[in-house]
Amino acid sequence: MNAPLLETSALKKFFSIRQGAFGETRDLKAVDGLDLRLHEGETLGIAGESGCGKSTVARLIMGLVPPSAGAISYRGRNLAEMGRNEQFAFRKDVQMVFQDPFSSLNPRMRVGDIIAEPLAIHGLASGAQKRNAVLDLMAKVGLAEEHFTRYPHEFSGGQRQRIGIARALAVSPRLIIADEPVSALDLSIQAQIINLLQELKKELSLSFLFIAHDLSVVRHMSDRVAIMYLGKIVESGSRDAVFSRYLHPYTEALLSAVPRIKAQQRGKRIILQGDIPSPLAPPPGCPFHTRCPYAETPLCTEVPPPLEEKEAGHMAACHLSGKLYR
Q1: What is the C-alpha end-to-end distance of the chain, expressed in Å?
Q2: What number of other Cβ atoms are within 10 A of residue 293's Cβ?
Q3: Cα torsion angle, 192, 195, 200, 203, sign
């Protein structure tokens, strides 16, 4: 397989949190040793409960927050070692679609100006050429020409997200990081946006890092899937492998909660006991052992399981995978 388009190695992000006015400062481990690989033309889905570190990963890659440790590489080049011109080119190649389609748009700018701003920043178009490019982008995402002079508050949530997508496409990126792009939208609108993203991927040969907590959306969008828990990846592999031959109890529990239309497709619902541990004080051993219905051995409670290949291309961080999922 070709070299990854994007790769992270032992990526960490810790936030220092002071407990009380005079309390001690402790590290909140938002991302704790993340290894990801995304190849050209691929959609990698990252899924997990709220607070597991998914959005922090997106912000680390985009440079919105600095990493505490580890490396991020784009086309084999470490972002931390890039010069100014390389960083500028990276920001053109990698764009982001944010979760909230309203707060991510400047309320004082007209839609045409919002979409045109990346073109001006990167010096790609001006004057009539810029206007025509914006109109083409608007048509591509399903917006009408009369929307050009309107403001974000005049649009529905789905239309605002289309504006955000058009803005991301303006500089002809190679990779789009979509951070929960449909979670704030109604179900019918979610389907429209997901279909639009898939059409754009095929038409423009895009790669996607797709972040969501809804596993049905992740399954629909992704070629490969990584499941996160408490700042770590606990399982990764092809979409079909993870969804049909899962190798981690956390993935099993998540999939058991996905609604099924047909009664014969519904398996036994697994109700996880207890709350997610605090990233300020993660448990010893396997981070999932405090909620795992199978954790009965000292190995689970004392020894952190490595993320290792259990099957060809299928990784899991579980001491009991071989016993539970033969």
Answers
A1: 28
A2: 12
A3: negative
Secondary structure class of 322 (helix, strand, coil)? helix
DSSP 16-44: EEE-SSSSPEEEEEEEEEEEEEE-TT-EE
Q: Helical H runs in the chain? A: 54-62, 84-93, 111-121, 127-140, 157-169, 187-204, 215-221, 239-244, 249-256, 298-302, 321-324
CA–CA dist 289, 250 (Å, integer): 10
Closest CA to 180 of 98, 274, 266: 98
Tokens of 227: 């499941």
Name residue 283's amino acid: P
Q: Which tens digits make up the pLDDT trace of 161-191?
A: 999 999 999 999 999 999 999 988 888 899 9
**Distance separating alpha carbons of residues 92 and 95, to the nearest angstrom:** 7
Query: pLDDT for 264-291, tens place per residue?
Result: 454 677 878 878 888 888 999 999 999 9
- Per the CB < 8 A criterion, the answer to whether 307 and 316 are in contact is yes
H or E element, residue 12: strand 6-18
CA distance 194 to 191: 5
* pLDDT tens per residue across span 104-155: 999 999 999 999 999 999 999 888 999 999 999 999 999 999 999 999 999 9
What gap in Å lies between CA 256 and CA 278, rounded to an integer? 24
CA distances from 23 to 26, 122, 324 (A): 9, 46, 43
